[in-house]
Each structure stands twice: as structure tokens, then as C-alpha cells.
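Contributing new records

If you add data, match the layout below exactly. Sequence lines come first and carry their own label; structure lines follow with theirs. Keep one chain per record. Anything else will be rejected by the validation script.
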Amino acid sequence: MATKSQPAEWEAALSGIKDGKTAQEYARNRDIFTKQKEGVLTLEKSRHKVVRPNGKGKPALVTANGKTQPIDWTAFLAAISCGKTALEYGANRTIYAQGDLADSVWYLQKGEVKLAVTSQEGKEAIVSVLGHNEFFGEGCLAGQPLRISTAVTVSDCTLYRIEKALMVRLLHEQDGISELFITHLLTRNTRFEEDLVDQLFNSSEKRLARILLLLAHFGKESRAESVHPGINQEHLAQMVGTTRSRICYFMNKFRTLGFIDYAGSGALTVNNGLLSVILRE
């Protein structure tokens, strides 16, 4: 991927965006950036396929006849013969470690993965827990030479390792893939901003309540959702930024109030009443 685009190209592209036009309309009707053989970005006519959310909030391709269809990443990656590897990992397996060479992007098809950072003093903090259909390790595309976090499986996972060169080519040549990946990055960035605000201004109790709701993917389909049993109180303490004893105190409080419960398998169930902790002044 070229590290810089020509200023004139950006000026030409931005000048073509008229008031009231969305970026997708512009991509369909005007020029977009694509790759030349020598790796310099230049202007070329847009292809007819773009990405937009469908009615259920999932990314979808818009075909020439105007009909949308969800992107099947598994089928798409399976059709690629070179530059990607499909892998099956059990729980508690290290995918890559902090300080490893950053030479690929990872796609999590199924399972859960935690990203953790370790300080020079040996203190570990979990910065994110990812679910199915998420990318991680994308820092290599921005020139990151080494991994700045460690990726570890929380449950059994199905993963795709996509080599950096292949991902760069897909982003340059496939409009739909490029826009979907941008959507992923913007969503991830928004989540990190919300995490920072939460860390700066909310109490440990509210931070824990928010993290439990996020881990349970709360509110998407039912009134009660489960957190994978691989997430324990030590993990929660690292994510909240407090001690395990404080986490234990709040978890017992939430359980007494009926906000959470433990199933026989050890899975934690989160109920909608936990929202009141976040909404409380």
C-alpha cells in the first residue's frame, strides 16, 4: 500500500463531492481511488458494487440491479487460494504475542478472542474482547512493524490469517471490501473512544456494568444474554481497571439485586436490570 496519496488527487476527489451527496453516492457516480501497478494511488471509475448496511444492520453488497446481499466472509476467503490460512484454535491459545512481527490481518469467524497488553513491569491489562465476524491485527496496514498487544483465544475459535500483501490488494481492488473494512475501523474507533470516556468519568461499578453488557452483546435479541465462562473475575478486573476484590464485591451485589446469575455450566447471565446501574446518576 502506498504510504501517501498525491495531494492533487485528494483535492480532485473532495471537490467532486457536492452538498447533500453521501460518500457512497459519490463512489458510485464519480471517481474513487484505486491502485496503479507502481503502487501509487490514482483516479479510476468506480465499480458497480459498494457496501452499505442492510435492514438488520449487517454489511451487504449492492449489486447492479439494486438488490442487497450480506457479505459471506467465509465463502469469500475460501475462494482465495493464496495469501490466507484457515486455522482452528482451542481455548487459551496464543494467536500472536506482543512484540511479534506484524505481517498479517486476522479475521475471527467464530469464537472469542481477548487482546491484552503487558507493561514492562509485567502488569497485564485486557483492552478488548472480540466476538465472531471481527478483524484484528490491522495495525500492520498502518505501518506498525511489531504487535503492540497479545491475542489469546477465550473459547474454541475458527480464524483466518490474511497476509498483509493480500489485504492491501483487496482494499485497493475491491470497493465492497474496502468500504466494509472502513466501517469496521470506524466502529472499533468509536468503541475505544467510549471506553476512554468510561474510564475517565465513570465509577468502577458503572464500568463493570457496561463491560458485562458489552460482553453479553446485550439487547440484540433477548432480555437475558450469557457471557462466555472463559471470562473470569480476574479478566474483568483488568478490563475495568480495579482490583479483583472490588469486582467480587460488585458481582455479589449485582447477583443479589437480580441483575446477573450463574448457570450450571458456569456461564454468567446478564439481565436487563443491569442497565439501571449505568443510567443511575
